[in-house]
């Protein structure tokens, strides 16, 4: 249960990081367009360049965080799957072989088996 909650939290963080990365990428594209249209003598060009550099750095950081969160989420998924397999293996190992081989008899089948046994004994 705790692993599933952690997995959900990591998935939420991954999605949030991906949204942030997409938003930063969009802002970078808009600023690059503005920069392309601005004249080279404009005093704001340097501001645009600095802002683009900041956003590109934020984008890179956010992408790395998203990648780390996805790796952690995937590792937790594998851990949960391994725990599930172990639980199934333990359950299977603790079940007596006679029960694993054949399903339980229905009441009518059980009665038929008893009557056949009685035929042999009498």
Protein described:
This protein has 122 residues and is an all-alpha fold. The chain has one domain. The model has no long low-confidence stretch (mean pLDDT 80). The two termini are 58 Å apart. The chain has helices at 2-37, 45-94, 97-101, 107-121. Residues 8-23 have a biased composition (Basic and acidic residues).
Oligomer: single chain
β-strand number: 0
| End-to-end distance | 58 Å
Strand content: under 5%
The level of helicity is over 70%
Mean pLDDT: 80
Query: Whole-number radius of gyration?
Result: 32 Å
Give the helices and strands as they follow along the chain.
Answer: HHHH
State the major sheet.
none
Q: Uncertain segments of ≥5 residues (pLDDT<50)?
A: none
Number of domains: 1
SS-derived structural category: mainly alpha
Q: How would you sum up the global shape?
A: rod-shaped
Number of continuous helical runs: 4
Region (Disordered): 1-25, 85-122
Biased composition (Basic and acidic residues): 8-23
